[in-house]
## 1
Amino acid sequence: MNFTRREALIIGAGAVTAAALPMQAFAAAIDDAIAAFTGGAETTDSGITLTAPEIAENGNTVPISVSAPGAESITILASGNPTPNVLTFTFGPLAGSQEASSRIRLAGTQDVIAIAKMKDGTFAMTSSAVKVTIGGCGG
Amino acid sequence: MAKGVKPRVKVPKKATAGEVITIKTLISHKMESGQRKDKDGNIIPRSIINTFTCDFNGQNVISVELHGAVSTNPYFQFEAKVPESGEFVFTWLDDDGSTYTDKKSITVA
């Protein structure tokens, strides 16, 4: 098969676009998940603390803890998972503090994002990069 | 009902009025994420616990919405304020419609 210079360029450009698509799809999914929680509102980066390990040997069980004084609810999102939603904590009137810990699955090295919805309606967002040695989504 | 589901909860037996106590909960559950495939390449259907709530004397302490990315045997640690003697009720809701509950009493001295 012989390509003219022009055809080769077009095919090359197509391949680059195709390779970039999954990245865009992931980025879109995480943006959608953030927007679904905040309703498109602006987020600040103070008032929330996310504690996650820098390196997680096993992506099947990564301990995380999140704290946001004055928060009504906190959601955790994993930017590199097939589905970004992980969990949402909603604090009731008898919550002793706006702090909770759990264990989550991560498909690979990625940023874990925590967003808190404060009682006054504002949002605070933070993220933490976690290196995962063995991914936790099967496959 | 998923097999071998056993809730475990750790709550102090006594507290002073208004004290903030730490509660730890663990429930054994396989939390099938719906992402894994069996050896024939078919996707194993999702089967997880989707909601967890903790109430004290009818008032909510915390409720958690779970998705596929929560680990096997979901574990939670959180804090609760204890205004009076009473009972904590822990509820887990499974995708298949079953409900698992556990109760722990606490005495305010």
## 2
Amino acid sequence: MPAVEATTATTRKTALNAVHRQMGARMVEFNGWDMPVEYPSSGGIIAEHMAVRTGVGIFDVSHMGDIRLAGPGALAAVQHISMNDASRLAVGQAQYSALLYPQGTFVDDVIVHRLGEHEYLLVINAGTREKDFSWVSDNTRDFNRKVENLSDEFTQIAIQGPKGLNLLQKLTDADLSALKFYWVTRGKVCGLKSVLIARTGYTGEDGFEIYIPADEATSAGVWNEILEAGKEFGVLPCGLGARNTLRLEAKLPLYGHEISDTINVWEAGLDRFCKMEKPDFIGRVALEKAKATGLQRTLVGLEMIERGIARDGYKVLDDSGREIGYVTSGSPAPFLKKNIALAYVPPRFSDAGSTVKVEVRGQGVKAQVVPTPFYKRPKRTESPRT
Amino acid sequence: MPYPSDFKYTKEHEWIKADGKNATIGITNYAQESLGDIVFAELPKVGSETTAGKTFGTIESVKAVSDLYAPASGTVTEVNSELATAPEKINKDAHSAWLIKITMKDPNELNSLLSAADYEKFVAEEAGH
């Protein structure tokens, strides 16, 4: 058993840090942040994961960063630095996208929200906050826009699961059932005026993310009010452990794992979020070339057939034991009750039903390529999707 | 949860309970708490050898993989087969859900391990970081 990781003095804290510690959360260092990995009082990762799949769970995701682009040239700036087509967004709509290097690889993945006629909010990853902000400001200089780093302005709380709507509706005057998936609105939340409410998340469930002022008292007040209001739905506070297993079941990419500065859009299988027909954007030329060359590797879903758990970084082998790829994320899947993984392999091994091996402590353990996402939430009439 | 005073403990968070040359080995309550939901235990076969301070298996939770270190040298006489289908028993009661039983080569090896009181002090310091 290794020693528990100690957190360093330079580790950053969200405004809810003291609340997590009071609740007895197990804290870990994640991308430079001191974050809860699980709450023993919730029953741990599996219980938290199940709460989100069957009821509701809440997450402190304030470590995520936020970049605001506004001005007459904001749309053109967003179009230039992101791969999805932001011109398709109505005011109040959001889209999954990514910032790319000229090589067609990832600076980061982002959610682009159109907040106003000429106003966009990019929500970015914790570990890439500074890099992303420099990238966005440096590469949009030629556009008539103002760019602001709002990362420290917000406490971001995710309310996720089929009961998320019922829970949040108790605390807001915004009509949440009228808010479609990947749309944003503003409303009063826990007495705070004009809070940004997005119907987004990173769990594969329906859910919401709210952006409130980042002072400790306000943040703690809202967090506790949500937990109190959610008692009737069995709400649990959830940590990064469950966030990771939930996103893995839903095959949502994690920066540094499925996507990175050495992996391109086609390899990651994010084609449908990359609009080659829109005006020029950074990365486009390289992606055209890459498409013509063909894929050398592709992201697949694996399900372990034999006993063993694939973990991040483990080697993938063919039947003869030759190394053919590697696992980007692997874990037991608490809802599916299987051991699953995402891995990069050559395209000829990517057909569903192909068998490969994952090297677990020197042993090749059999796994099968399966269709992804591993988990897709059941369609519910009360949560319309576009 | 109290740490039984008739157990000895390693700094890697295993416990060992000796009865003459025979001993039972498990992981401590602190270990199961740190790991979280335990989903898999890879244990040695009956008849294999353990060496004090060396790994004898692996334990996995949803989020982590950890090596198991043998508190004493010896020969494995029994493996807790219940853990193959119900590894969560370790979370429920780490001090009764044992992993393996061994016949020790030299029971004197246990003298270098921690007493319950020393182990409690050790984990209090480790948790206090």
## 3
Amino acid sequence: MRNKTLRLGLLSLALALVTSFALVGCGKGGSTNAGGDTSTIIVGTTQDIDSMDPATAESAATREILFNVYDGLVKPDTEGNLQPAVASDWTISPDGSVYSFTLREGVKFHDGTDVTAEDVKYSIERYRDSKTGGSLVSAFEAVDHVDIVDDTHVDVVLSEPNTDFLAYFMIGITPAHVDDLDANPVGCGPYRYVSRSPLENVVLEKFDDYWDPEGAAHIQNVIFKITTNTDSIGMELSGGSIDLFYRLPETQLDQVSNDFTIYEGTMNLVQALYLNNSVKPFDDVRVRQALAYAIDPQQIMDYVSGGKGVPVGSSMYPAFEKYFMPELSDTYAQNLDKARELLAEAGYKDGFTFTIQVSSAHPQHIETCEVIKEQLAAIGVTANIQEIEWNSWLSDVYTGRNFEATVVGLDASALNAPSMLSRFTSTAGNNFINFSSSAYDDTYAKAYAATDEAEKTELYKQCEQILADECASVYIQDLPSFVALNKRFTGYEFYPLYAQNIATIRPAE
Amino acid sequence: MRYILKKIASTLITLLVVSVVLFMSFQLISGDPATRMLGTSATPERLEALRAELGLDKPLIIQYLSWLQAFVRGDLGTSYVYKQSVAGLLATKVPVTLWLAGISFVLMCALALPAGVYTAKHAGSPTDRVLMVANQVIMAIPPFFSGILISWLFGMVLRLFSPGGFVSYERSFWGFVGYLVFPAIAIALPRAAQVAKLLRGSILEEAGKNYTRTAYSRGNTTSGVLYGHVLKNAFLPVLTFLGMSLANMLAGSLVVERVFGIPGISTTLLSSIGNRDYPVVLAIVMWIAVVIIVINLIVDILYRVLDPRIAEEG
């Protein structure tokens, strides 16, 4: 017993020293990607994937990764136009009730089988089925049935006409013979699934038999690395653990070394101070307008993102070129006298106090709240900021509609106007701000039913105008988005909706 | 034998209480797995359907009993988020934390034990003073800060590893261990400082006791007294702290796992709470409870070995 403790101590010391010194050398290798290797790109993402199956994938962070694995009948380009993909051509019946697709020949799934008309029918029916489909069910419910005309022609018949439906066919075509896509993802996109480890990574590799030589991948391996700690992104980029990070906070920009190219775009969302239109005092349009007159988006942009960002004046962001109305952001140019006047008219001469609930996971939104609080103080309105966890936000604010005001960014799930505008119809299940206007409901219904493209666009614009005039919420901006890409690579492209197309990225030389 | 039965019974009761409290706390936090999974595409109908699918629409007591029934049979359930078995999910996360804890513990002992003995033996010397000041400073640095410091120093300046470049042990075992050494330093340092201080104080206290004087009077050298008589007694209080430290390390170091981007059980626990992935949260908390109970048991037994008087009293 005598010297055992000591011997134990000395032994452990020796052991530890030997191991740590021996291992320090090995630590250099690892998953880092320094040097000139361009066969693998490591992409940082802050959220874990929620499903590898496009039917049940919910978050935008997941869909933008799945964009690489699954190709749909159509595929968006960087301008937001829908281009042929699995379908080489299509026609839409004049009333918008039948979508006829001609399937491209020679499109192969990752398991080597051909994409057939049966697979297309199976995929669309699966997205419609509430047992297997997720958030897409509400859109695909409009599909009445799918007809296989012949081996290369498929007709999709809608139960009610809708000329805006094409955008939904971006969703991936999947093989009818694969059961569990979450565990065994098979698509026909430029990259195929290799492996996945929860909270660690998702690994993809180039699909050699991709149908489109022009859209094919350049880089052999892609590792999406899950990095939940955004504070260390700068260090991870500079240290070589990440080659591409597409949601870089403005505050981390100066921490990124010269080895990186910074791309600047927008996040494709509408950030606003969303007001619950059914609670006092926000049920009074004059109060909502008073807040809008008191808030200056430019100051918010200066504070939150170094003056970058695009002001928006309604529920539409600039990437929707066809629908976006830049002039609406001038509807309520800052005017404190006007704001006080409106408050007095509404009976709040001495101002009032309310609470803004904001997700603690979104620093830009919290900073926006801080500026708003200052700006509203000038007209005697006191805003209390309450940070809540994202899940509480989802259940209390978004689903429960139990809030006064919140700052958040709303994005589009599909490349069409309804995905930004349908939620403000008075009966919409996701109308969390309880906006209610019969003029809006009528105009939206007319726009939805219209078949003439110009008329339709005009009506959707009227909807945006109503949201601005009624001041449904205080619209602020489309936030800037910064992307850092290691200079060994080039070719990052922004898309007008959630898509991170790794196939466009290629070695720099 | 009775001792062991008693311990097993108290372990089971502890686990039962922990699981009940945990189940009830799920009700207190707002949001459930369904709201999280559906996100902004949630509608009341879809929420209801998903809750029914996950069994969340049943009364709490039924949910608890069915979980307990499965747990007793060794079935940890299925993760809501990852749709794979919780056991399978944790099988890839627990080894990471085990290794991190192991390396941290070895490092801690290797640093603290010699330092404690040395400073006690040379108490009052300049080296002792310098070491004790350094000790205070290290104790005062929180792990998240030392973590960032270590990342910066070893990662950015010395380029010995790349921050955030965690390597899975399946890909490269030595790369994995090599990466973990650095977070292990962040975990081990403040605890090593505490152990050293504790050991030094304990040795000095024992050195003032009568038996030590007797040992000296019998003609022993300083080293002889220290290693032959004092150390064994001085080590007892330190043992408790070492046990506690090991239990804490095995339970996962939340801050360090986060700073270094290590997908261990702390990271999994945190993200599962955020996701309201209850089966995963329950399994990890049960694991932590078991670890703490088992380590306490081992410390208890070691005590009896080192000091037979304790066993007689018990």
## 4
Amino acid sequence: MNSRFNRLTGLLAAAAMSAPMMGAPDAWGEEVSIGVLHSLSGTMAISETSLRDVVLMAAEEINAAGGVKVGGKAYTIKPEVVDPASDWPLFAEKAKELIVDKDVAVTFGCWTSVSRKSCLPVFEEYNELLFYPVQYEGEEQSLNVFYTAASPNQQLVPAAQYAIDELGSKKFYLLGTDYVFPRTANKVLKAFLLKQGVPEANIMEEYTPFHHQDYQTIVSKIKTFAAGGDAVVLSTINGDSNVPFYTEFANQGLTSDDCPIVAFSVAEDELRAMDTSKLEGHLAAWNYFQSIDTPQNAAFVQAFKDYCVKEGLPGGADRVTDDPIEAAYYGVYVWKAAVEKAGSFDVDKVREAVYGIEFAAPGGKKKMHESNQHTYKPVYIGEIRADGQFDIVWESEGLVEPDSYSSLLHPGGKFPAPTGGPKAVKH
Amino acid sequence: MPWIVWLFAALALVWSPARAEAPAGATLADAAVLELARGLNDNATAQDAVDQLVALKDPRVVRLFNRLMDNQLRTLGREGPLVWRPDDNGVLDPLAKERVAVVPAPSDEQLADLKSFRGKRKARRGVQQRLALLGLEVDDVQTRAESARSVGNKRQAEALPLLRQLAQADPDAGVRRLAAGSAALIVLDDAQASVGDRAAAAQTLGELKSIRALAVLDGITADAAADPAVATAARAASKQIGRHIRFTSWVSNAFFGLSAGSILVLLALGLAITFGLMGVINMAHGEMLMIGAVTTWACFNFFGGVLGDYFYLVAFPLSFLIAAAVGWLTEVLIVRHLYKRPLDSLLATIGVSFVLIQAVRNWKGDNLGLKTPAVFGGGFELMQDVTLAYNRLFIIVLCVFCVVATAVIFRFTKIGLVLRATVQNRAMAESLGVNTRRVDMFTFALGAGLAGLGGYGLVLVTNISPQMGQTYIVNSFLTVVVGGVGKLVGVIVSGLGVGFLTKFIEPFWFFDSSYAQIAVILIVVLFIQRRPGGLFPDKGRAANAATGEDMPFLTKYKASTDWICGALFAGVFLVLVPLLYGSGTLSPEFVNKLGYILAFAICAIGLDLIWGYMGVLSLCQFLFFGLGGYCMGLYLINHGPMEGPNGDIPRALFVVMSGVGELSPPWFLKFFRSFPVAVMLGLLIPGLLALLIGVTNFRSRVRGVYFAILTQAITVAFYILFQKNELVLGGTNGLTNFTHILGFAIVPDGDAGPFAQTRFWMYMVTVVVVMAVFVVAKLIVHSGFGRLLVAIRDDETRLRFIGYRTWVYKAAAFMIAGVFAGIGGMLYVPQKGIITPGSELSALASIMVVVWVAFGGRGTLWGAVWGTIAVRLLYDALTSGAPDWYVDSVGALPGVGGFFTGVWSADSWMFVLGGLFILVPLLLPGGLMSIPSRLRRSA
């Protein structure tokens, strides 16, 4: 197994981190710009700022290890940071600016689906690349995007399976914030559960608007729903609604032993802002946890903390890593490896080089899909601990192949063709 | 604690003589027991480990299990020995009865590497069931109750004899009830039990009103094969339980309503003072809440280590004082200059809010977590199935305290007296020797301090972040307005009213919480139309503003300015930009950007017409823009890429529709297929909605801030509505994937010249439309109708007494403004490439239109145009960070270079923009358009 991976070109994140600090190779003076398109203000800053930080850290590491080596030259990465300010149309504007004015070779960015939808036409129009690091609802496959986080079958379905097998759940409360990801996620989940023979009456679906604060009514509904035991909440609640939800859940006397909550949008970084004593024992499904116990991951976590301290970022040494942070981080390394493999920054060549590439991410070995733009990833279920970290209670056997379009939603298997791609292909 | 009590009781149980003949497990060495226990943490062995440990019938195992369930077990390092860690210090023997330190004492290294040992879920479930069985005989009531419930839910038939015993003889009524319920549940769910027993069990469950039995009972009722006697009993029981659920949910809803209402009162009380009494449209109110919450967080962070949960006591005065201090500073530095211009206070306080958000963000980041004091966990069980959460009870108490304290200050203190006097009649108060400056300072600081206390309370129910204030600002304004601006008692009644209303609407099956919010907004809008002064109409400073006594500051400018601006506009946008674009100096992207910014300007001209000239502040102008945009978007997706089995579903809608069995295009899509029809709808829909809003509100004489806040609420309703997937408008992702307009490809054609690009011509059309709309607006302003609008602004009442039906003119002007916005939206969408509810329909978007107009100078029309262009270009430039030329030149300045490059960065643009929003109303009242007259005056 190891020898297979050892053949890989130099994208080993751990190797890069342990490399001695060599300083930027300014002797060559070659630079390549990369775009960083994450909200630093507005409602999404709470999540996206950490991704900006980790992308900058990856760039700094790569520069310290000698830069991106193409055609016998070493290129120093110059990150261009912009703030799309949680303003969806501004994402398109900033993407354009990065591509046209800053002449970036690639862009790392976006969190919400709507922000990705906003700048996607821009990346397709200019045939440029975006690395998108957050799990999402799927139903998309653009040749101009690499999706380094989970598609629904890499997060939702294994979690539902876990609930049935391990939690012994018979009743499912699908609770989400009212936007496209939870809606699609729950469609996938419901299709899966029905297929597993869960009667329709045992599945509840409920949505709340963004920033919903008052979960009294909903928790009391859950309480009635879960009174007979064997119920589970599958939660796609987003962002600042989570604290009110979990708080209310605990205060109305429900515990993770009565009715566990399996969350799909709560990771370590969000837990920093929560009173975890109310969350202990609840679960989350991801493809990476900070608690993955390997030397590579320990080094990554430490490097991120050190970076935050060194840069004087808020949180400092208390900062944590999580799934999107890992995905954002190795995205940079995947791109670097693909560029070096292709021997060029040319988008069409880099795209081809990304397909099927295997790499060592902090959380372990992963692989880009051979054709559908997504990533083969392991799946983990973790239990929230009092210290805001996760105990991994289940993990998939090996890597799970990603779907771009869900086979549960398109039983015929008739998927739309990929969008975007090289100009010449488009009539 | 119950686990400890239980532990001793369980010990007694295991040692009871009846079990003395059990295998002598006690002989098993500690090490062997611990080795077995390790198996709990491995999925493969978990079940076995539980069984083997139980088979030992050993008190050490009971202790171990209890400690496991209390999450008190750790291992020293990954492979190290298992230890008991009941608190943060001890590392104790996990099997010992007393606190015995482990031998050998762990090294510091091991101590630094404690791993939590929780056991796999399978193991925990097994252990919990075992402990539950034991727990039935424990002294502690709560443990017995938990156990009685748990064995029933798990249908542990072996517990039946004990359960029956408890159901008869337990001293605690709650335990008797749970035990009886569990026993009945086990019997009912056991197909082997006799018909008589099962029917009796069903009856018992009905009498116990056992909600957890409902699913089983309904299952039997629905099961055709069930014995008729059991089924009849089950049906009766199910009905009985249903009645109980309805009753308890009414009781719960009443409490939920009270709690939601008290939070609203707490949020709005401070605003009722700064906005209600003082007339400042205080957009920074949410940030005062945030300051209070962040102060509480800081107390936790800095004193939590020493004080433990008592940090919350310290935070109480501090959150008030610090928020009050920030409020005081705001008043002294900014707000006091704007009392005569309440509407300008909107712009300045938005600036304050930007600055405060960014300051906190740069200080400690967005993730501010704290551990709320333990006393606020859990709740008080009012009756069966009704729990009142302690944190919510505390907030109710806090709310009562704030209300009472405010009332006492106002009624019974000297400062309260002069405060009321100042609010009622400033001039008279002054002439009687009241220092109104000091009163103003105090009042504003008091309002901010109360907001700080609101934030202090919120910490118990929600999370803390620099952005949190934005979540509450709309509701706070709405609460104040419904209550009646200027009367504190109004806030209390309206806050509680809205709280109850929401909580009694939400549970209905056809509502989810989104529709409940929309319904509440609708009800509030209709209410205000019936009572345009709110619940308790009053005459305060704001009430005066509402009747137009405080005239907005207006720039007088000469006709020549019009011509100069016109020439400048046409010269730049119609001649210079195309020339530079053709020569390659300006990128197509920049021209595209100018194109959609000018589309915003059309929207702003509309707002200036009704705000600047007619004096009606609207906070839904961008809603009309969005609606126009959606109409054009629907046209565009009709002619874009298609997906779906029949290839007739636009790609933008595909993602919200994908799924089995719903794959036909939405019914309304075909109406937007033809361009002229889509454009007509793009004019009609915003126009008619504007007319509807105008007629209903102006006719019932909703005015001033009441109207402004109402329109904001309407915007929020649409914002929530358009995010719903079931509307098939693309949900939160909105409409995108536009490729062709009128048959022309939108995406640039690399081979064609710059003047053969669709985007360029969309820009040109926008420029021409801006000029056309401007001319129309100008003609309106100079017509008799336009004079009437100004007259309405200056004194509507007089106009009405002269015999004009002012509402007709107001509604007409409002409709025209809405149509202008719709035009802007239609021009914007094809150039921008996307329209989403999150951005275009948000409350902030409509506020920003007001900002553009105020920045440019209202009542000038040109101000709307230049203000929009200036603010948008600044926003775009600042959020991108400084360009290289700036870093190279300004950054090189000695001493100050670092500061200036730091200021222009993606991390601090809110300081710059916020600062400008503050400075413009202070230094340039009248906005950009007042610059020429100022220059003339100073010359």
